[in-house]
Protein backbone atom coordinates (compact mmCIF):
# COMPACT_ATOMS: atom_id res chain seq x y z
CA UNK A 1 0.00 0.00 0.00
CA UNK A 2 1.32 3.38 -0.93
CA UNK A 3 1.99 5.78 1.98
CA UNK A 4 0.28 9.10 1.64
CA UNK A 5 2.38 12.20 2.52
CA UNK A 6 -0.09 14.78 3.77
CA UNK A 7 0.84 18.42 3.47
CA UNK A 8 1.54 20.33 6.69
CA UNK A 9 -1.84 21.76 7.45
CA UNK A 10 -2.95 24.17 10.22
CA UNK A 11 -4.46 21.19 12.10
CA UNK A 12 -1.15 19.35 12.11
CA UNK A 13 0.70 22.42 13.35
CA UNK A 14 -1.84 22.71 16.17
CA UNK A 15 -1.18 19.10 17.06
CA UNK A 16 2.55 19.78 17.30
CA UNK A 17 1.85 22.73 19.59
CA UNK A 18 -0.18 20.51 21.86
CA UNK A 19 2.67 17.99 21.99
CA UNK A 20 5.09 20.79 22.82
CA UNK A 21 2.83 22.08 25.58
CA UNK A 22 2.66 18.62 27.11
CA UNK A 23 6.43 18.43 26.97
CA UNK A 24 6.74 21.75 28.81
CA UNK A 25 4.23 20.57 31.43
CA UNK A 26 6.11 17.32 31.86
CA UNK A 27 9.36 19.24 32.30
CA UNK A 28 7.82 21.52 34.94
CA UNK A 29 6.38 18.51 36.76
CA UNK A 30 9.80 16.86 36.81
CA UNK A 31 11.38 20.12 38.00
CA UNK A 32 8.87 20.44 40.82
CA UNK A 33 9.50 16.86 41.76
CA UNK A 34 13.25 17.43 41.79
CA UNK A 35 13.14 20.65 43.78
CA UNK A 36 10.37 19.72 46.23
CA UNK A 37 9.93 16.00 46.57
CA UNK A 38 13.57 15.10 46.04
CA UNK A 39 14.71 17.82 48.43
CA UNK A 40 12.16 16.55 50.89
CA UNK A 41 13.69 13.12 50.46
CA UNK A 42 17.07 14.67 51.19
CA UNK A 43 15.73 15.84 54.53
CA UNK A 44 14.35 12.42 55.25
CA UNK A 45 17.65 10.87 54.16
CA UNK A 46 19.61 13.22 56.40
CA UNK A 47 17.30 12.36 59.28
CA UNK A 48 17.64 8.65 58.60
CA UNK A 49 21.42 9.00 58.49
CA UNK A 50 21.24 10.88 61.78
CA UNK A 51 22.70 14.00 60.17
CA UNK A 52 19.70 16.34 60.37
CA UNK A 53 19.18 18.47 63.45
CA UNK A 54 16.16 20.74 63.90
CA UNK A 55 16.55 22.94 66.96
CA UNK A 56 13.47 24.75 68.29
CA UNK A 57 14.29 28.27 69.44
CA UNK A 58 12.11 29.57 72.26
CA UNK A 59 10.98 33.21 72.19
CA UNK A 60 11.58 35.69 74.96
CA UNK A 61 8.32 35.97 76.86
CA UNK A 62 6.84 39.45 77.25
CA UNK A 63 7.53 41.31 80.50
CA UNK A 64 4.75 42.07 82.99
CA UNK A 65 5.04 45.52 84.62
CA UNK A 66 3.21 47.27 87.43
CA UNK A 67 1.65 50.71 86.89
CA UNK A 68 5.03 52.38 87.60
CA UNK A 69 6.90 50.24 85.04
CA UNK A 70 8.46 48.05 87.74
CA UNK A 71 8.97 44.56 86.28
CA UNK A 72 6.92 41.83 87.93
CA UNK A 73 7.71 38.95 85.56
CA UNK A 74 10.85 38.86 83.42
CA UNK A 75 12.64 36.32 81.25
CA UNK A 76 16.32 35.53 81.76
CA UNK A 77 18.65 33.57 79.51
CA UNK A 78 19.55 30.06 80.65
CA UNK A 79 20.63 26.90 78.88
CA UNK A 80 19.15 23.51 78.18
CA UNK A 81 20.44 20.25 76.83
CA UNK A 82 18.44 18.77 74.00
CA UNK A 83 18.61 15.39 72.33
CA UNK A 84 17.34 13.62 69.21
CA UNK A 85 14.98 10.66 69.48
CA UNK A 86 16.44 8.91 66.44
CA UNK A 87 19.91 9.02 68.00
CA UNK A 88 18.74 7.64 71.32
CA UNK A 89 17.03 4.41 70.42
CA UNK A 90 19.39 1.88 71.99
CA UNK A 91 19.59 1.00 75.67
CA UNK A 92 23.35 1.47 75.51
CA UNK A 93 22.98 5.07 74.28
CA UNK A 94 20.40 5.93 76.92
CA UNK A 95 22.59 4.45 79.65
CA UNK A 96 25.68 6.27 78.36
CA UNK A 97 23.89 9.64 78.32
CA UNK A 98 22.42 9.08 81.80
CA UNK A 99 25.90 8.28 83.12
CA UNK A 100 27.40 11.35 81.44
CA UNK A 101 24.77 13.65 82.95
CA UNK A 102 25.21 12.02 86.35
CA UNK A 103 28.93 12.77 86.20
CA UNK A 104 28.02 16.45 86.04
CA UNK A 105 25.55 16.28 88.91
CA UNK A 106 22.41 15.97 86.80
CA UNK A 107 20.39 13.00 88.00
CA UNK A 108 18.49 11.51 85.09
CA UNK A 109 17.69 7.82 85.26
CA UNK A 110 17.48 5.92 81.98
CA UNK A 111 13.72 5.49 82.50
CA UNK A 112 13.40 9.26 83.03
CA UNK A 113 15.13 9.93 79.71
CA UNK A 114 12.89 7.41 77.94
CA UNK A 115 9.76 9.03 79.35
CA UNK A 116 10.99 12.49 78.30
CA UNK A 117 11.69 11.29 74.77
CA UNK A 118 8.28 9.66 74.57
CA UNK A 119 6.32 12.63 75.94
CA UNK A 120 7.96 15.25 73.68
CA UNK A 121 8.38 13.19 70.51
CA UNK A 122 7.02 14.64 67.27
CA UNK A 123 9.43 13.61 64.47
CA UNK A 124 12.78 11.79 64.78
CA UNK A 125 15.00 14.71 63.76
CA UNK A 126 13.33 17.35 65.98
CA UNK A 127 15.11 17.90 69.27
CA UNK A 128 13.50 17.36 72.65
CA UNK A 129 14.55 19.00 75.90
CA UNK A 130 16.27 16.65 78.34
CA UNK A 131 17.68 19.08 80.93
CA UNK A 132 16.50 22.60 81.77
CA UNK A 133 17.73 25.66 83.65
CA UNK A 134 21.51 25.35 83.39
CA UNK A 135 23.73 28.35 84.02
CA UNK A 136 26.39 29.51 81.59
CA UNK A 137 29.10 28.11 83.88
CA UNK A 138 27.37 24.72 84.08
CA UNK A 139 26.86 24.60 80.34
CA UNK A 140 30.48 25.56 79.63
CA UNK A 141 31.77 22.78 81.89
CA UNK A 142 29.47 20.17 80.34
CA UNK A 143 30.25 21.09 76.73
CA UNK A 144 33.99 21.22 77.41
CA UNK A 145 33.93 17.58 78.55
CA UNK A 146 35.59 15.45 75.80
CA UNK A 147 32.94 12.79 76.42
CA UNK A 148 30.05 15.14 75.57
CA UNK A 149 27.69 12.83 73.64
CA UNK A 150 27.23 13.69 69.98
CA UNK A 151 23.52 12.91 70.37
CA UNK A 152 23.11 16.00 72.56
CA UNK A 153 23.15 19.71 71.74
CA UNK A 154 23.34 22.78 74.03
CA UNK A 155 20.62 25.37 73.45
CA UNK A 156 20.07 28.84 74.90
CA UNK A 157 16.56 29.34 76.27
CA UNK A 158 14.47 31.82 78.25
CA UNK A 159 13.21 31.13 81.75
CA UNK A 160 10.74 33.09 83.88
CA UNK A 161 11.64 34.97 87.06
CA UNK A 162 9.28 36.84 89.40
CA UNK A 163 11.15 39.62 91.27
CA UNK A 164 8.15 40.49 93.46
CA UNK A 165 7.74 36.86 94.56
CA UNK A 166 4.73 36.16 96.74
CA UNK A 167 3.67 39.83 96.87
CA UNK A 168 2.20 39.63 93.36
CA UNK A 169 1.78 35.86 92.98
CA UNK A 170 -2.03 35.70 92.81
CA UNK A 171 -2.21 38.41 90.17
CA UNK A 172 0.83 37.71 88.00
CA UNK A 173 0.59 33.92 88.29
CA UNK A 174 3.32 31.63 86.98
CA UNK A 175 4.35 29.53 83.99
CA UNK A 176 5.14 25.82 83.91
CA UNK A 177 5.69 22.94 81.52
CA UNK A 178 2.68 22.17 79.38
CA UNK A 179 0.89 18.99 80.50
CA UNK A 180 -0.88 16.36 78.42
CA UNK A 181 -4.33 17.88 78.85
CA UNK A 182 -3.08 21.34 77.85
CA UNK A 183 -1.23 19.87 74.90
CA UNK A 184 -4.44 18.28 73.64
CA UNK A 185 -6.29 21.55 74.09
CA UNK A 186 -3.68 23.92 72.66
CA UNK A 187 -1.55 21.71 70.41
CA UNK A 188 -3.12 23.22 67.32
CA UNK A 189 -1.67 26.59 68.33
CA UNK A 190 1.88 25.35 67.87
CA UNK A 191 2.64 24.04 71.36
CA UNK A 192 4.80 20.96 71.83
CA UNK A 193 5.84 18.82 74.76
CA UNK A 194 8.39 20.62 76.90
CA UNK A 195 7.01 24.10 76.13
CA UNK A 196 6.08 26.48 78.91
CA UNK A 197 2.60 27.89 79.26
CA UNK A 198 0.89 30.29 81.65
CA UNK A 199 -0.70 28.32 84.47
CA UNK A 200 -2.46 31.02 86.48
CA UNK A 201 -3.02 34.75 86.83
CA UNK A 202 -2.04 37.21 84.12
CA UNK A 203 0.45 34.66 82.78
CA UNK A 204 -2.46 32.37 81.87
CA UNK A 205 -5.05 35.01 80.93
CA UNK A 206 -2.72 36.78 78.49
CA UNK A 207 -0.74 33.77 77.31
CA UNK A 208 -1.57 34.66 73.70
CA UNK A 209 0.17 38.04 74.05
CA UNK A 210 3.06 37.13 76.33
CA UNK A 211 4.13 33.91 74.61
CA UNK A 212 5.67 35.12 71.33
CA UNK A 213 6.45 32.83 68.39
CA UNK A 214 8.96 30.01 68.28
CA UNK A 215 11.79 30.00 65.78
CA UNK A 216 13.95 27.15 64.56
CA UNK A 217 17.24 26.17 62.95
CA UNK A 218 17.87 23.16 60.71
CA UNK A 219 21.50 22.00 60.35
CA UNK A 220 23.40 19.09 58.88
CA UNK A 221 26.03 17.41 61.05
CA UNK A 222 28.64 14.78 60.40
CA UNK A 223 28.92 11.37 62.05
CA UNK A 224 30.55 12.97 65.11
CA UNK A 225 27.82 15.56 65.51
CA UNK A 226 29.88 18.48 64.15
CA UNK A 227 28.25 21.17 62.02
CA UNK A 228 28.53 20.60 58.27
CA UNK A 229 26.14 23.28 57.00
CA UNK A 230 23.12 25.33 58.00
CA UNK A 231 20.03 24.36 56.04
CA UNK A 232 17.45 26.82 57.32
CA UNK A 233 16.93 29.42 60.05
CA UNK A 234 13.87 31.23 61.39
CA UNK A 235 14.35 33.63 64.33
CA UNK A 236 11.93 33.55 67.26
CA UNK A 237 9.63 36.52 67.86
CA UNK A 238 9.45 37.92 71.42
CA UNK A 239 6.10 38.20 73.18
CA UNK A 240 4.35 41.47 73.93
CA UNK A 241 4.67 43.27 77.27
CA UNK A 242 1.69 43.71 79.60
CA UNK A 243 1.32 46.69 81.98
CA UNK A 244 -0.92 46.31 85.04
CA UNK A 245 -2.84 48.96 86.96
CA UNK A 246 -1.47 47.59 90.25
CA UNK A 247 1.02 49.52 92.38
CA UNK A 248 3.79 47.21 93.63
CA UNK A 249 4.77 49.53 96.49
CA UNK A 250 1.19 49.70 97.78
CA UNK A 251 0.87 45.95 97.33
CA UNK A 252 4.03 45.45 99.38
CA UNK A 253 2.60 47.64 102.15
CA UNK A 254 -0.58 45.54 102.23
CA UNK A 255 1.38 42.29 102.26
CA UNK A 256 3.22 43.50 105.37
CA UNK A 257 -0.04 44.43 107.12
CA UNK A 258 -1.55 41.04 106.23
CA UNK A 259 1.43 39.00 107.38
CA UNK A 260 0.31 36.01 109.44
CA UNK A 261 -3.36 36.58 108.55
CA UNK A 262 -5.76 34.77 106.24
CA UNK A 263 -7.92 36.86 103.97
CA UNK A 264 -7.81 39.34 101.13
CA UNK A 265 -7.56 43.02 100.28
CA UNK A 266 -8.65 44.86 97.16
CA UNK A 267 -8.38 48.58 96.47
CA UNK A 268 -9.99 50.00 93.34
CA UNK A 269 -10.47 53.42 91.76
CA UNK A 270 -14.17 54.17 92.29
CA UNK A 271 -14.61 55.90 88.93
CA UNK A 272 -12.39 53.99 86.49
CA UNK A 273 -12.34 50.60 88.19
CA UNK A 274 -8.51 50.51 88.11
CA UNK A 275 -7.32 47.86 90.57
CA UNK A 276 -4.49 49.37 92.64
CA UNK A 277 -4.09 46.54 95.19
CA UNK A 278 -5.21 42.93 94.98
CA UNK A 279 -3.64 40.77 97.65
CA UNK A 280 -4.60 37.34 98.97
CA UNK A 281 -3.07 35.95 102.16
CA UNK A 282 -1.34 33.60 102.66
CA UNK A 283 0.50 33.74 99.38
CA UNK A 284 3.19 31.62 97.70
CA UNK A 285 6.44 32.11 95.83
CA UNK A 286 5.88 31.48 92.09
CA UNK A 287 9.60 31.18 91.28
CA UNK A 288 10.05 27.52 92.30
CA UNK A 289 6.87 26.66 90.38
CA UNK A 290 8.24 28.24 87.22
CA UNK A 291 11.58 26.46 87.54
CA UNK A 292 10.17 23.11 88.56
CA UNK A 293 9.03 21.57 91.84
CA UNK A 294 9.59 18.01 92.87
CA UNK A 295 6.45 15.91 93.37
CA UNK A 296 6.52 16.04 97.17
CA UNK A 297 6.97 19.83 97.11
CA UNK A 298 3.96 20.25 94.79
CA UNK A 299 1.84 17.97 96.98
CA UNK A 300 2.79 19.91 100.10
CA UNK A 301 1.80 23.18 98.44
CA UNK A 302 -1.53 22.01 97.05
CA UNK A 303 -2.53 20.17 100.23
CA UNK A 304 -1.71 23.05 102.57
CA UNK A 305 -4.94 23.66 104.51
CA UNK A 306 -4.32 27.42 104.50
CA UNK A 307 -4.81 27.27 100.69
CA UNK A 308 -1.98 29.65 99.74
CA UNK A 309 -2.64 29.23 96.00
CA UNK A 310 -6.29 30.32 96.21
CA UNK A 311 -6.97 33.91 95.22
CA UNK A 312 -9.40 34.79 97.99
CA UNK A 313 -10.25 38.19 96.50
CA UNK A 314 -11.79 36.82 93.31
CA UNK A 315 -12.32 33.14 94.12
CA UNK A 316 -13.17 33.07 97.82
CA UNK A 317 -16.86 32.80 98.70
CA UNK A 318 -17.92 34.44 101.95
CA UNK A 319 -20.99 35.58 103.83
CA UNK A 320 -20.90 39.38 103.45
CA UNK A 321 -22.62 39.88 106.83
CA UNK A 322 -23.61 43.48 107.57
CA UNK A 323 -21.70 44.90 104.59
CA UNK A 324 -24.64 43.56 102.54
CA UNK A 325 -27.11 45.83 104.37
CA UNK A 326 -26.59 48.55 101.77
CA UNK A 327 -28.53 46.34 99.32
CA UNK A 328 -31.64 46.36 101.52
CA UNK A 329 -31.18 50.06 102.27
CA UNK A 330 -31.01 50.96 98.56
CA UNK A 331 -33.90 48.63 97.69
CA UNK A 332 -36.09 49.95 100.51
CA UNK A 333 -35.61 53.59 99.54
CA UNK A 334 -35.74 52.99 95.77
CA UNK A 335 -38.90 50.86 96.00
CA UNK A 336 -40.62 53.32 98.32
CA UNK A 337 -40.96 50.77 101.12
CA UNK A 338 -39.25 53.20 103.49
CA UNK A 339 -38.24 56.87 103.50
CA UNK A 340 -35.24 58.45 105.18
CA UNK A 341 -37.54 59.24 108.12
CA UNK A 342 -38.98 55.74 108.54
CA UNK A 343 -38.11 54.16 111.89
CA UNK A 344 -38.34 50.69 113.37
CA UNK A 345 -38.10 49.81 117.04
CA UNK A 346 -35.27 47.52 118.14
CA UNK A 347 -35.68 45.75 121.50
CA UNK A 348 -32.62 43.61 120.76
CA UNK A 349 -34.42 40.87 118.86
CA UNK A 350 -37.25 40.09 116.45
CA UNK A 351 -39.51 37.04 116.56
CA UNK A 352 -40.02 35.46 113.15
CA UNK A 353 -42.28 32.44 113.38
CA UNK A 354 -41.15 30.44 116.38
CA UNK A 355 -37.59 31.77 116.31
CA UNK A 356 -35.89 34.83 117.80
CA UNK A 357 -33.46 36.70 115.51
CA UNK A 358 -31.15 38.77 117.65
CA UNK A 359 -29.42 42.13 117.35
CA UNK A 360 -26.08 43.05 118.94
CA UNK A 361 -27.98 45.08 121.57
CA UNK A 362 -31.28 46.98 121.97
CA UNK A 363 -31.11 50.15 119.87
CA UNK A 364 -34.58 51.59 120.45
CA UNK A 365 -35.98 53.55 117.51
CA UNK A 366 -33.69 53.70 114.47
CA UNK A 367 -34.00 55.32 111.06
CA UNK A 368 -32.00 54.11 108.04
CA UNK A 369 -28.92 56.25 108.75
CA UNK A 370 -28.85 55.20 112.41
CA UNK A 371 -29.41 51.54 111.48
CA UNK A 372 -26.39 51.62 109.17
CA UNK A 373 -24.31 53.45 111.78
CA UNK A 374 -25.15 50.99 114.57
CA UNK A 375 -25.52 47.96 112.30
CA UNK A 376 -28.96 47.32 113.74
CA UNK A 377 -30.10 43.87 112.66
CA UNK A 378 -33.69 44.33 113.82
CA UNK A 379 -34.19 47.36 111.56
CA UNK A 380 -33.01 45.34 108.58
CA UNK A 381 -34.96 42.22 109.59
CA UNK A 382 -38.15 44.27 109.40
CA UNK A 383 -37.12 46.02 106.19
CA UNK A 384 -36.14 42.73 104.57
CA UNK A 385 -39.44 41.07 105.46
CA UNK A 386 -41.32 44.00 103.92
CA UNK A 387 -39.24 43.83 100.73
CA UNK A 388 -39.19 40.04 100.37
CA UNK A 389 -36.33 37.93 99.07
CA UNK A 390 -37.26 38.38 95.39
CA UNK A 391 -36.84 42.15 95.51
CA UNK A 392 -33.69 41.82 97.63
CA UNK A 393 -32.04 39.37 95.24
CA UNK A 394 -33.05 41.48 92.24
CA UNK A 395 -31.33 44.55 93.69
CA UNK A 396 -28.33 42.46 94.72
CA UNK A 397 -27.96 41.32 91.12
CA UNK A 398 -28.21 44.89 89.86
CA UNK A 399 -25.39 45.81 92.23
CA UNK A 400 -23.18 43.10 90.75
CA UNK A 401 -23.67 40.16 93.12
CA UNK A 402 -24.29 36.66 91.80
CA UNK A 403 -22.27 37.25 88.62
CA UNK A 404 -18.61 37.69 87.65
CA UNK A 405 -17.19 41.20 87.68
CA UNK A 406 -15.25 40.54 84.48
CA UNK A 407 -11.76 41.18 85.88
CA UNK A 408 -9.03 39.89 83.56
CA UNK A 409 -7.98 36.97 85.75
CA UNK A 410 -8.90 33.29 85.55
CA UNK A 411 -10.71 31.62 88.42
CA UNK A 412 -13.29 34.25 89.34
CA UNK A 413 -16.22 32.83 91.32
CA UNK A 414 -19.81 33.81 90.61
CA UNK A 415 -21.08 33.67 94.16
CA UNK A 416 -24.52 32.53 95.25
CA UNK A 417 -27.55 34.83 95.35
CA UNK A 418 -29.70 31.91 96.54
CA UNK A 419 -33.46 32.64 96.55
CA UNK A 420 -36.62 30.58 96.26
CA UNK A 421 -35.80 28.60 93.14
CA UNK A 422 -32.22 27.90 94.24
CA UNK A 423 -33.35 26.51 97.59
CA UNK A 424 -36.04 24.37 95.97
CA UNK A 425 -33.62 22.99 93.40
CA UNK A 426 -30.84 22.44 95.95
CA UNK A 427 -32.68 21.19 99.02
CA UNK A 428 -36.20 20.51 97.75
CA UNK A 429 -37.52 22.96 100.36
CA UNK A 430 -39.58 26.14 100.29
CA UNK A 431 -38.16 29.53 101.20
CA UNK A 432 -39.14 30.67 104.69
CA UNK A 433 -39.38 34.09 106.32
CA UNK A 434 -36.45 33.11 108.53
CA UNK A 435 -34.36 32.62 105.39
CA UNK A 436 -35.17 36.19 104.37
CA UNK A 437 -34.22 37.46 107.84
CA UNK A 438 -30.81 35.82 107.48
CA UNK A 439 -30.47 36.96 103.88
CA UNK A 440 -31.02 40.65 104.54
CA UNK A 441 -28.11 40.80 107.01
CA UNK A 442 -25.76 38.92 104.68
CA UNK A 443 -25.95 35.48 106.29
CA UNK A 444 -27.55 32.15 105.42
CA UNK A 445 -27.23 30.87 101.88
CA UNK A 446 -25.88 34.12 100.44
CA UNK A 447 -22.22 34.03 99.32
CA UNK A 448 -20.19 36.77 97.64
CA UNK A 449 -16.58 37.52 96.69
CA UNK A 450 -14.60 40.49 98.04
CA UNK A 451 -14.24 41.94 94.54
CA UNK A 452 -18.05 41.95 94.15
CA UNK A 453 -18.34 43.96 97.36
CA UNK A 454 -15.74 46.45 96.10
CA UNK A 455 -17.67 46.96 92.89
CA UNK A 456 -21.02 47.51 94.65
CA UNK A 457 -19.58 50.08 97.07
CA UNK A 458 -17.83 51.84 94.18
CA UNK A 459 -21.27 52.34 92.63
CA UNK A 460 -22.53 53.89 95.87
CA UNK A 461 -19.50 56.20 96.03
CA UNK A 462 -19.53 57.33 92.39
CA UNK A 463 -23.26 57.90 91.94
CA UNK A 464 -24.53 54.65 90.43
CA UNK A 465 -21.86 53.43 87.98
CA UNK A 466 -20.88 49.77 88.39
CA UNK A 467 -17.31 49.69 87.00
CA UNK A 468 -15.71 46.61 85.53
CA UNK A 469 -12.51 46.06 87.53
CA UNK A 470 -9.65 47.10 85.25
CA UNK A 471 -6.36 45.25 85.75
CA UNK A 472 -4.57 45.90 82.44
CA UNK A 473 -3.75 49.47 81.40
CA UNK A 474 -4.45 48.71 77.73
CA UNK A 475 -8.02 47.67 78.54
CA UNK A 476 -10.76 50.19 77.89
CA UNK A 477 -13.00 51.52 80.63
CA UNK A 478 -16.19 49.52 81.01
CA UNK A 479 -19.13 49.11 83.35
CA UNK A 480 -22.86 49.70 83.60
CA UNK A 481 -25.13 52.39 84.93
CA UNK A 482 -27.56 51.46 87.69
CA UNK A 483 -30.81 53.39 87.74
CA UNK A 484 -30.76 54.77 91.29
CA UNK A 485 -31.89 58.24 92.28
CA UNK A 486 -28.97 60.21 93.70
CA UNK A 487 -31.19 61.16 96.65
CA UNK A 488 -31.26 57.48 97.58
CA UNK A 489 -27.49 57.16 97.29
CA UNK A 490 -26.92 60.33 99.32
CA UNK A 491 -28.83 58.76 102.24
CA UNK A 492 -26.70 55.61 101.99
CA UNK A 493 -23.50 57.65 101.82
CA UNK A 494 -24.55 59.62 104.90
CA UNK A 495 -25.14 56.35 106.78
CA UNK A 496 -21.71 55.00 105.75
CA UNK A 497 -20.04 58.22 106.88
CA UNK A 498 -21.76 57.91 110.26
CA UNK A 499 -20.44 54.33 110.60
CA UNK A 500 -16.89 55.71 110.71
CA UNK A 501 -17.69 58.95 112.54
CA UNK A 502 -19.48 57.42 115.51
CA UNK A 503 -20.50 53.85 114.72
CA UNK A 504 -18.98 50.40 114.43
CA UNK A 505 -16.19 51.48 112.04
CA UNK A 506 -14.66 54.33 114.04
CA UNK A 507 -11.20 52.74 113.93
CA UNK A 508 -11.06 53.25 110.15
CA UNK A 509 -11.07 57.02 110.64
CA UNK A 510 -8.08 57.18 112.98
CA UNK A 511 -5.48 57.86 110.27
CA UNK A 512 -6.25 61.42 109.24
CA UNK A 513 -8.38 60.55 106.22
CA UNK A 514 -12.16 60.92 106.04
CA UNK A 515 -13.47 57.40 105.43
CA UNK A 516 -16.99 56.07 104.83
CA UNK A 517 -17.79 52.38 105.05
CA UNK A 518 -19.43 49.44 106.72
CA UNK A 519 -18.21 46.72 109.05
CA UNK A 520 -19.31 43.10 108.96
CA UNK A 521 -18.89 40.10 111.24
CA UNK A 522 -19.93 36.86 109.58
CA UNK A 523 -20.75 33.64 111.39
CA UNK A 524 -19.03 30.60 109.89
CA UNK A 525 -19.07 26.84 110.29
CA UNK A 526 -15.43 27.03 111.41
CA UNK A 527 -16.46 28.33 114.85
CA UNK A 528 -14.75 31.72 114.54
CA UNK A 529 -16.30 34.69 112.75
CA UNK A 530 -14.96 36.21 109.55
CA UNK A 531 -14.49 39.98 109.73
CA UNK A 532 -14.96 42.57 106.98
CA UNK A 533 -14.72 46.25 106.28
CA UNK A 534 -15.86 47.78 103.00
CA UNK A 535 -15.55 51.49 102.40
CA UNK A 536 -14.12 54.37 100.41
CA UNK A 537 -12.14 57.57 100.88
CA UNK A 538 -12.12 60.50 100.94
CA UNK A 539 -15.73 60.30 102.01
CA UNK A 540 -16.69 63.66 100.51
CA UNK A 541 -14.83 63.10 97.21
CA UNK A 542 -14.28 59.37 96.81
CA UNK A 543 -11.09 58.18 95.09
CA UNK A 544 -10.59 54.61 96.28
CA UNK A 545 -12.90 51.83 97.42
CA UNK A 546 -11.45 49.13 99.67
CA UNK A 547 -12.44 45.70 100.92
CA UNK A 548 -10.51 44.04 103.72
CA UNK A 549 -11.56 40.54 104.76
CA UNK A 550 -9.97 38.48 107.52
CA UNK A 551 -10.93 34.86 107.92
CA UNK A 552 -11.60 34.19 111.61
CA UNK A 553 -10.92 37.86 112.30
CA UNK A 554 -13.82 37.87 114.81
CA UNK A 555 -14.70 41.60 114.64
CA UNK A 556 -15.05 43.88 111.62
CA UNK A 557 -14.84 46.98 113.79
CA UNK A 558 -11.85 46.00 115.92
CA UNK A 559 -9.74 43.82 113.62
CA UNK A 560 -10.41 45.00 110.08
CA UNK A 561 -11.48 48.65 110.13
CA UNK A 562 -8.03 49.82 111.36
CA UNK A 563 -6.33 47.96 108.50
CA UNK A 564 -8.63 49.54 105.95
CA UNK A 565 -8.08 53.00 107.38
CA UNK A 566 -4.30 52.62 107.37
CA UNK A 567 -4.22 51.38 103.78
CA UNK A 568 -6.47 54.18 102.51
CA UNK A 569 -4.43 56.78 104.37
CA UNK A 570 -1.23 55.40 102.86
CA UNK A 571 -2.63 55.59 99.34
CA UNK A 572 -4.01 59.08 99.73
CA UNK A 573 -1.11 60.58 101.69
CA UNK A 574 2.03 58.77 100.60
CA UNK A 575 1.04 58.94 96.95
CA UNK A 576 -0.04 62.55 97.31
CA UNK A 577 -3.59 61.94 96.14
UniProtKB/TrEMBL annotation:
SUPFAM superfamilies: beta-lactamase/transpeptidase-like, Penicillin binding protein dimerisation domain. The chain crosses the membrane at residues 14-35. One of its GO terms (molecular function) is peptidoglycan L,D-transpeptidase activity. It comes from the Bacteria. InterPro entries: Beta-lactam/transpept, Beta-lactam/transpept-like, Beta-lactam_class-D_AS, PBP_dimer, PBP_dimer_sf, PCN-bd_Tpept, Penicillin-binding_protein_2. Pfam families: PBP_dimer (PF03717), Transpeptidase (PF00905). PROSITE patterns: BETA_LACTAMASE_D (PS00337). Its main location: membrane. It catalyses: a beta-lactam + H2O = a substituted beta-amino acid. One of its GO terms (biological process) is response to antibiotic. The active site is at 322 (acyl-ester intermediate). This is Beta-lactamase. It comes from Acetomicrobium thermoterrenum DSM 13490. The lineage of its organism: Bacteria, Thermotogati, Synergistota, Synergistia, Synergistales.
